Amino acid sequence: MSKIVSALSPMEQDVESPAVTTRKPKLPKQAREDLPKQLVDQVRAKRKIQRYVRKDGKCNVHHGNVQETYRYLTDIFTTLVDLKWRFNLFIFVLVYTVTWLLFGFAWWLIAYVRGDLEHIGDNQWTPCVNNLNGFVSAFLFSIETETTIGYGYRVITDQCPEGILLLLIQSVLGSIVNAFMVGCMFVKISQPKKRAETLVFSTSAVISVRDGRLCLMFRVGDLRNSHIVEASIRAKLIKSKQTKEGEFIPLNQTDMNVGYDTGDDRLFLVSPLIICHEINQNSPFWEISQADLDKEDLEIVVILEGMVEATGMTCQARSSYVTSEIKWGYRFMPVLTLEDGFYEVDYNSFHDIHETNTPSCSARELAEMNCRARLPLTWSVASKLSHTTTLITQEEGLEEQTERNGDIANIESESKV
User: Fold this and answer.
1) What are the boundaries of the region Disordered (predicted)?
2) DSSP class per residue in 72-105
3) How remote is the C-alpha of 174 from its chain's centroid?
4) Percent of the chain topping pLDDT 70
5) What is the 8-class DSSP label of residue 324?
6) Between vectors from CA 358 to CA 55 and to CA 290, what angle results, nearest 5°?
7) Which of 4, 277, 327, 357 is deepest in the core (most CB within 10 A)?
């Protein structure tokens, strides 16, 4: 297993390569046979980038071999809401149609059992439902009853207790079906998923120096004039890893600080903002240089959350950046300009970046170089202060000794006198 880890990067172990055709039975996908170095390089070059979260925010994860499928039926309301529109509309029409057919059959059965169908046109016979002469008319009466249309042509009489009971049952069940299906459709229509379509992320993330420190940055913006209330941003690094004990963790998630300790992760998203992750000792990019970044197989998932101002419902927009989309030594072009009495945002430059002078070393190496650059100055100042203090002490000691010698001489002269 150690040979495998050294041959393939952690992310490559989680994605099965077509070049590897033999593997031991009942082993996980990460347990590959040891490959020659040239073959590994070819696999890495030809392998397609596998995202955990796509650029449109959809998660690239499929759930398979789910044995406890009954759990979906337990939460049937959420299951219906999560269905695609074509299935949702099909179930909507199917539920109403089946309900009308079942109760229509019940009305026809009552008329058949009572003999109403045998006395059609007999004015001396009081049927359960007037003008009900077959299954089609019973089906129409069922629709009129459940939808409370009431055309007035077919009407129930007071000589049919079983019909009155069926009318009560259909009225109650019809109200429940209406509430359930209309509520499901309303929730699906008012879902804030489409609101996330107007929340945009920059196509690339950049790494450059800001205030003397290396920072990883990306830009977010809102295309609508209505704001996202209580907007907050999070970022996670998705990268497979292996522990010291040899345990392999595929697609391990690591939090990236984008300001949650300072409050900068809470956004007032009126104009596009540049989200900054400072690469310090707690950052997963602390020891990654520009050359190392090109070899890394990682993904950064960014999540923007907030409440829709119009509806008050929570909205979430997602995007991701793979290694090829992280540009080292670049900054974003400004998009905000001051016009006559207002600020204008130029979204044509939202994704534009420009190159800037950035060291290619890692943040740790940059911090060490800055520390070494400050050491001579610190040492010289301290040595000068120490030297000055020593001189002052020596001068004070000489003055005190001179005064002491003068006092002794005065005493001796007085004693002689």
Assistant:
1) 1-30, 395-417
2) HHHTHHHHHHHS-HHHHHHHHHHHHHHHHHHHHH
3) 39
4) 77
5) G
6) 60
7) 277
- 142 close to 100: Cβ distance less than 8 angstroms: yes
What amino acid is encoded at 275 in this protein?
I
| Sign, Cα dihedral of 118, 122, 125, 127 | positive
Distance CA 177, CA 102 (A): 13
Q: How far apart are CA 286 and CA 54, in angstroms?
A: 26
Amino acid at residue number 417: V
Report CA Rg, the chain. 39
Whether residue 63 is predicted with pLDDT greater than 90 in this model: the reply is no
Token pair belonging to 283: 């950052």
Which amino acid belongs to residue 154? Answer: R
* Strand spans (E) along 101-223: 199-201, 205-210, 213-222
Q: How far apart are CA 112 and CA 110, in angstroms?
A: 5
Evaluate if residue 132 carries a pLDDT over 50.
yes
Query: Which pTM value belongs to this model?
Result: 0.65
pLDDT of residue 379: 45
Domains of the chain in sequence order: 85-190 (1.10.287.70), 195-368 (2.60.40.1400)
Given a contact cutoff of 8 angstroms between Cβ atoms, the answer to whether 306 and 266 are in contact is: no
Residues 34 and 14: their CA atoms lie apart, in Å, by 15
Single-letter amino acid, residue 308? V
Reduced 3-state DSSP string for the chain? CHHHHHHCCHHHHHCCCCCCCCCCCCCCCCCCCCCCHHHHHHHHHHCCCCCCECCCCCECCCCCCCCCCHHHHHCHHHHHHHCCHHHHHHHHHHHHHHHHHHHHHHHHHHHHHHCHHHHCCCCCCCCCECCCCCHHHHHHHHHHHHHCCCCCCCCECCCCHHHHHHHHHHHHHHHHHHHHHHHHHHHHHCCCCHHHHHEEECCCEEEEEECCEEEEEEEEEECCCCCEEEEEEEEEEEEEEECCCCCEEEEEEEEECCCCCCCCCEECCCCCEEEEEECCCCCCCCCCCHHHHHHCCCEEEEEEEEEECCCCCEEEEEEEEEHHHEEECEEECCCEEECCCCEEECHHHCCCEEECCCCCCCHHHHHHHHHHHHHHHHHHHHHHHHHHHHHHHHHHHHHHHHHHHHHHHHHHHHHHC
Mean pLDDT (the chain) is: 80
Largest separation between any pair of C-alpha atoms in the chain: 165
pLDDT of residue 186: 87
Q: Is 139 exposed, middle or buried (0-12, 13-18, 19+ CB in 10 A)?
A: middle
